[in-house]
Write a structure and sequence with these properties.
The complex is a heterodimer of chains A (about 230) and B (about 280).
Chain A lengths: L1 H10 L9 H12 L4 H13 L1 H6 L4 H7 L4 H34 L3 E2 L2 E2 L6 H59 L1 H16 L1 H28 L4
Antiparallel strand pairs in A: 1-2
Chain B lengths: L2 E12 L2 E11 L3 E5 L6 H9 L6 E6 L2 E2 L9 E4 L11 H8 L8 H10 L13 H14 L4 E5 L7 H16 L4 E5 L3 H7 L2 E6 L2 E7 H7 E6 L4 H4 L3 E6 L2 E7 L11 E4 L2 H12 L3
Parallel strand pairs in B: 3-8, 3-9, 6-7, 7-8
Antiparallel strand pairs in B: 1-2, 1-4, 4-5, 9-10, 11-13, 11-14, 12-13
Helix pairs in contact in B: 3-4, 4-5
The chains are: A mainly alpha (about 230), B alpha/beta (about 280).
């Protein structure tokens, strides 16, 4: 599996340079809103891990794989493995950036916004769990479709629409947070409950993420086993 | 002699096209040309052998193992119209990515082939000419000591010099014992040079399978003024024009033709062209 992950990584060589944009972009957003760093990293890393699909048809990466001594199951495993690995690296880096920026910016006013977010273990832990859930939802809505019909045919339903939907939902969430007192109070009460019950919240989020990822993996294996090249 | 390739009753149905009970076998150590017109089923057959397309029926075994056994691909070299390498890869990237999958990979051999074929290890794949791309693909397969090469149109689109070089590499490859090639192509003159066997596929069915010489020595091209009525049924791909006719005919039927008839030994191209003409109703 490690050889396949390595080959997937080499396969998207053309996109490697874009990898450095992620920490820069995350830091830029973080200056305005530190708590969003970890979810944004999760989102960016998921998008980045879709690149082996993006190169598969132009460079016929899947066709190459099927000439090698590997099974179709191993190809799916590697793509999930690479995605999870990148997600873990992203979440670890996002955690470090969040801790640094929250310490540096706490109490300071940047662009008319005074930072009041202080990172502590419980908050960061819940941000990571929540981001994993976001990753799992996105993974389920993207990977099985791309495994079934490939990126060229599947990018609209299997990539652009899910990414667009998450972006719109994030925008709506922020708009309601700033414009709707009732919603803000309700969300704050949810956050307070979560912080007061960290273990339960984490279990729920991690359990849901694991379930969604398992469904995504099983579906991906099933559809890829029947795909024609 | 054991068979490197055995295809039995291979079936695959698509809307508007089907492979119908395709069967042939290639003994170890021989080169088999796989010929037929566009859309006859050559690439589909090769893809079915690799598991790229899922067959509806039949059996395939490669190097004595069922085709779905993963380890068989360790001894297989596959090239379709060009190697499946990413445009941004260099030969060094290819080595880094591909080498771990083959137990018999030989670094030194790979470097020697790169140098012999004039391939810069740090140059990107996209900057290579088509001939160089094919040579890189062959360098990879020769470096992991592939026992069986499955090639789909490997010389298509190459200039005569590059084609000659690729054929030379293949001829050299065949010098070692127990190395086998299945070579699909439109350029039948290539097969005249390296093939021992010919599998001719037309409209999803194998129309001829046998030794190359058997194919070419069994038929001749016949041209003349008027074709006698009793010979019409033996004429393959008959074409009549104002000054006479031309067709392909099995050698056993040419006796008794008028004295002004010209007969020529058929090439693989002739056989393919006239048989295709017959299958289209000519």
């Amino acid at each position: 599996m490690l050889n396949m992950i390595k080959l997937d990584w080499i396969g998207m060589k053309v996109y490697h340079k874009r990898f450095v944009i992620i920490p820069l972009m995350v830091c830029f957003y973080g200056i305005f809103n530190v708590p969003v760093i970890i979810p944004i990293v999760a989102f960016c890393m998921l998008n980045f891990s879709v690149n082996p699909f993006a190169v598969e048809e132009k460079g016929k990466l899947d066709n190459l794989y099927l000439t090698l001594p590997v099974t179709r199951k191993a190809i799916v495993n590697a793509r999930f493995g690479l995605s999870l690995l990148m997600q873990c690296i992203g979440l670890a880096a996002g955690t470090v950036i969040t801790i640094i920026l929250s310490n540096v910016l706490y109490g300071r006013t940047v662009f008319h916004y005074t930072h009041t977010f202080k990172a502590d273990f419980a908050v960061i832990f819940l941000l990571i769990c929540g981001s994993l859930l976001l990753y799992a939802v996105m993974n389920l809505s993207i990977f099985p479709i791309l495994f079934k019909i490939g990126y060229a045919k599947g990018k609209m339903f299997g990539f652009i629409i899910p990414v667009f939907a998450v972006s719109i939902m994030t925008g709506v969430l922020f708009t309601m947070w700033y414009s709707h007192n009732g919603f803000r109070e309700w969300l704050l009460s949810v956050i307070e409950w979560s912080l007061a019950h960290t273990v339960w919240t984490a279990l729920i989020l991690l359990g849901a993420s694991a379930l969604l990822l398992a469904v995504s993996y099983m579906l991906s294996r099933k559809v890829y086993a029947k795909r024609e090249f | 002699m054991s068979n490197a390739i055995e295809v039995k009753n291979l079936c695959k149905h698509y809307p508007g096209f089907a492979l119908k009970n395709v069967s042939f076998h290639v003994p170890n150590g021989l080169c088999c040309g796989f010929v037929g017109p566009n859309g006859a089923g050559k690439t589909t057959t090769l893809k079915a052998m690799l598991g790229m397309t899922l067959r509806d029926g039949g059996e395939i075994s490669l190097l004595g193992k069922p085709d779905d056994e993963v380890t068989v691909k360790e001894e297989l070299g596959v090239m379709f119209d060009q190697p499946y390498f990413q445009e941004d890869w260099t030969p060094l990237d290819v080595e880094k990515g591909i080498k771990p999958f083959y137990r018999d990979w030989d670094d030194g051999e790979y470097r020697r082939y790169l140098s012999r074929f004039g391939l810069d290890p740090k140059k990107k794949f996209k900057t290579f000419s088509r001939g160089m791309k094919m040579k890189l693909g062959l360098a990879v397969h020769l470096s992991h000591n592939a026992k069986l090469l499955l090639l789909d149109e490997p010389t298509g689109g190459l200039d005569p010099v590059a084609r000659d070089e690729v054929l030379d590499i293949l001829r050299e490859y065949m010098v070692s014992d127990n190395r086998t090639i299945l070579f699909s192509t439109h350029i039948t003159s290539d097969l005249e040079r390296i093939a021992d066997l010919i599998a001719y596929i037309s409209n999803g069915e194998i129309s001829f399978f046998g030794e190359k010489d058997e194919l070419t020595s069994s038929y001749c091209v016949v041209r003349g003024g008027t074709l006698p009525e009793d010979k019409r049924k033996h004429a393959i791909g008959l074409r009549e024009h104002s000054s006479g006719y031309e067709c392909l005919m099995a050698l056993e039927h040419i006796g008794g033709l008028p004295s002004d008839t010209v007969t020529e030994r058929a090439t693989i191209d002739d056989v393919v062209v006239y048989m295709e003409r017959r299958s289209k109703g000519a």
